[in-house]
Amino acid sequence: MKREVPMVLALVFAIIRIGFELLQPMIAWEFAPGKTVFTRLSFSLTFMSVMGLLMGLINLSRQHINTIRRKREHWVYSVWLLIVLYGYAIIGLIWGPDSNTFIWIYDALIVPLDSTMFSMLAFFIASAAYRAFRIRNVESTILLVVAFIVMLGNVSIGEMIWSSEAWLGGFKGIKDWILSVPNTAHARALSIGIFLGAYAAAIRVFLGLDKKYLGGTD
Amino acid sequence: MSTDPQIWIAALGTLAVYSYLYKENPAYRIAEYTLVALYTSYSLVLDFHEYLIPYGRQYAIEEGQWYFWITGAIGLLMYFRYAPAEWNWLARYPISILVGWGLGYTLVRSPRPVMVQVKDSMRPLNTVNNVLFFVFFLCIMFYFFFTVGKESKFIQGTGRVGRYIMMVGFGCAFGNTVQGRISLFLNRLSFLLVDWIGMKIW
Question: What ipTM was predicted for this assembly?
Fold first, then answer.
């Protein structure tokens, strides 16, 4: 009941889905005019997954309530987090995501904080580039030289330094060649490798050799 | 300078995040915790209003599709994760069903895009670029080829070239990422200088 039934359920639903994907009569199977079994089953499983929508809220709340209760370091920020978490959720749940207040907060805080967080990576990347440069081996040199050429090929100052009408098409011409030949070869080889690894992992789950998704130890 | 409170909040939030570049401080922490809380609530609200309510109302109530009640009830079993140890295994049922459903899709659909790429990689060797592409492609594949030992000079040589080509690929990704982040930074800078302070740049 605890492990075997969930594993059988995963196998059965995987086989059903494979059937829907591969067998044309199955995917066209209608239980009422214009209503296929596949779409209704997909919708009902989406509905099932959405039932767990409070999981994120509960997990975050449990973690921070624990921090507050034990007065761990920075517990005051956890109080602030819970106020914002429930305040914004209540506004959204009552007045909806199209309400003025909800959108106002989204524009005032989520958009700027999110893009600023990502933009900060420019500084950390610059420091990473400096550290890579200090290693002084062939690999790090190739990486940095290529990154430099790609950046110069994308901006107008690169065009001013070495015009695309000059020899080799300038920085832009070299950048285009790098992107279309070695970079494509790299992306293809890596995506094939990633696919083989991911597919092997999927087969292991299908065969019941990998049961980590069940969690727990019993 | 702007008098719009929304712009002021956005500007102070932006400065609070950038204050981390100096060192970790309370302003940054408040901004960080605020963003985590807002994003969690945002996704909750969107799921609630775009899936839970419309699906529940249309299919379970208006159309009376009985199986929506069953899948909904099974979905609620996920919360048994927080139940005492003797009951929390019930949370495995909805997770297994969703894993199985996604697994079926992955097993059937995921090979196709890769096969398209494999097919396109087998280019006719009629141009210098096509020959180079094929050689680079094989060299990278050899780098991950562990069936024969690395003692072979051929495997060592091709593997080394493959590693260099991978660095070219990572360099492209690195350059594009740096540019993307810098353009985001310029966008924030423009917001602070033009929208908040009211400086005329153009």
Answer: 0.85
